[in-house]
Amino acid sequence: MLTILSTLLSFLMGGLPKLLSFFQDRSDKAHELELAQLQIQREIELRKAGFEAQERVEHIHTEQMQIQAETNAQGYRLQERQSLYAHDIEIGKGASQWVTNARAMVRPALTYGMFLLLVFVDIAGFAYAYHTGVAFTECLDQLWDQDTQLIWASIVAFWFGSQAFEKK
C-alpha cells in the first residue's frame, strides 16, 4: 500500500508545475470571463444609446487586449524559465567545467547509482541463495521487499511522471 502511495505521490510531484499552471490558467480564464461579461453589459448600454461605430471600436480594442494578455502570460512563463536558467548559469560562473558537469550530473548519478545498487544486491543475493540452497521464493521475498519496491517505484515514477506532464 505504501508503495502505491509513494509511486502516486512521486508521479504527481513530477507534474506539480503543470498543476500549478492549470490553476493559474483557470484563474486567468475566470478573470477574462468577468471582463467579457462587463464588456457585454457595456455593449448593451452603447446599443441603447445608438453607438454602433463605438461598438466596433470597442470590439477591436477588446481583441487587442486579449491578444496582449495572452502574449504577456506566455512572455511571463518564458521569462520565468529564462530567469531560472540565468540563475543556474550565475551559480556556475567562476567554477571549473568539471564542477559544472558534476553539478549537472547529481540527479542522474543518484538514479543510476540506485539502479546499479539494486542490480548488484539482487545478483549477489541470488548467487548467495543459490549456493546456500535457499528456495527461490524466499530469496525473492527478501531481495524485492516492500522497502525496495517503495524506493524504486518512487524514483521511476518521479522521472517518468515528469515526462508525462511535459507539453509536446
Task: Give an account of the 3D structure.
With 168 residues, the chain is mostly helical. It has two domains: 77 residues, no CATH class; 59 residues. Helices cover 89% and strands 0% of the residues. Helix 5 runs antiparallel to helix 6. The longest helix has 41 residues. The protein starts with a helix and ends with a helix.
Number of helices: 7
User: Based on helices, strands and strand pairing, what is the structural class?
Assistant: mainly alpha
Helical proportion, percent range: over 70%
Count of the domains: 2
Q: Quaternary arrangement of the chains shown?
A: single chain
The main β sheet shows up as: none
H/E topology pattern: HHHHHHH
Mean pLDDT across every amino acid position? 78
Radius of gyration: 28 Å
Give the beta-strand count. 0
Low-confidence stretches: none
Instruction: For the record, give the distance between the C-alpha atoms at the N and C termini, rounded to a whole number.
Output: 33 Å
Measured by DSSP, the beta-strand proportion falls in under 5%
The global form is: elongated
List the helices and strands and how they pair.
Blueprint: H1 2-14, H2 16-49, H3 52-92, H4 97-104, H5 106-132, H6 136-143, H7 146-164
